[in-house]
Amino acid sequence: MKKLNVTFCSFPDFSGNAKALFNYMQDRYKNKMNYTWIVTDEKSIDVIKKMGAEAYLSGSLECSNYLPKTDVFFSTHANLTGCKAVAPHAIYIELWHGIGPKPVGYLTKNMRDVDMQWYGDIKYIIDYMIVPSAFWKIVFASTFDINVNQIKDLGLPLLDEIKYSNGKNSLGKILPDVNIDKYSKIIFYMPTFRKGCGRELSVNYFQNTLFNFDNYDDSYLLKYLENNNYLLIVKRHPSDELNYKCIDSEYIKVINNDKLSDLGMDVNAILNACDLLITDYSSVGIEYAFLDRPVIYVSTDLKEYYDERGIILDNYDFWTDGITCDNYNDMIKLIDKYIGKRRVKNNKKILYGNLTDGGCRNICDFVFDGNKLNKSLVRHENELLIAENKNNELEEKLDLCIEQIKKLTESDIRLAQIENSRSWKMLEKLRRIFRK
To answer: Is the distance from CB of 47 to CB of 20 less than 8 angstroms?
Structure first.
């Protein structure tokens, strides 16, 4: 029996919702399906092969030969929309990469032409988009200008890693020289990206300090961490091109995506190691809050960020529950108040519906019937494909017309040859004689 070819892609490679769903499918379906990853970094290939899947470098000949065999695509950044053209029979499912206050798609301010084209691909190519609740169905329908019936509120797979992974053990692998257990509490600082993906900013961020606070020096924070025996983990966004000035010490450690990728991990594998998260506008704040742990939002540059990017719903308090600060002293007060305590977001039911985990079972039950594609799935008859089909029909008609013209032309040539022949001229003379 032919196995389904399931193709995954994410940014960074082997991360986020795609990775979490892949892990679940491997456990559920074992070797009843073929799993393949399309990657942008050649180093990822060996990591993925160790996990029991195939991997091809995007743009390679091997990748081009494989893609037409795909039965279902799962991506996180609409990474493979262009590949649907070579596998039109495949089902394309967009898992997306996060939920939060940061606007994307057609809700984005100052959208670039390249973004407009990219979001257009999402609208015209994908068959389904997966979200965690009915609230996000409405948001994403507006965000990507797609039919709400194509959006299914089934889950957010990365929540499985956030909830079930052994975060402290994974953090220990990333920082092998650090005794993680010696600290009384662990704090993560994970800001979103300001500059990256070709965006130019009118404001310079984080040029002097880690948190962009005025009248602040990292030594203040270092002393506070030492006195309380807290470890601060600083993790930048993978797309960020800004240079942060940060002390690397016994109580402040910086981790990067290269280290995570080398170990076959992503940030979701270590999130539950922390007792409190500090962020700003990143989706990680909403995702981490699924654990019912406290999140502090630094809003120093809220006005500038709103002018550059905007905030979904234009309501920062909705996303933050009002736990925000714009200076060092207030941040410390909030840490003292909330660290290590259970903190349920007021809007958790809206954001996550009835989810108790990442919803991977829901997604697979929707997409697959056993180890085959569910027959109820509908390939999106989008305007782009309809236009392509019409073009194909027109080309076929044009080819037929050309053939007919050729035949007519050949007939005309043949008639001309006959009329110019000696026999034809003789017959014409006889015809005139007979007419007289």
So the answer is: no
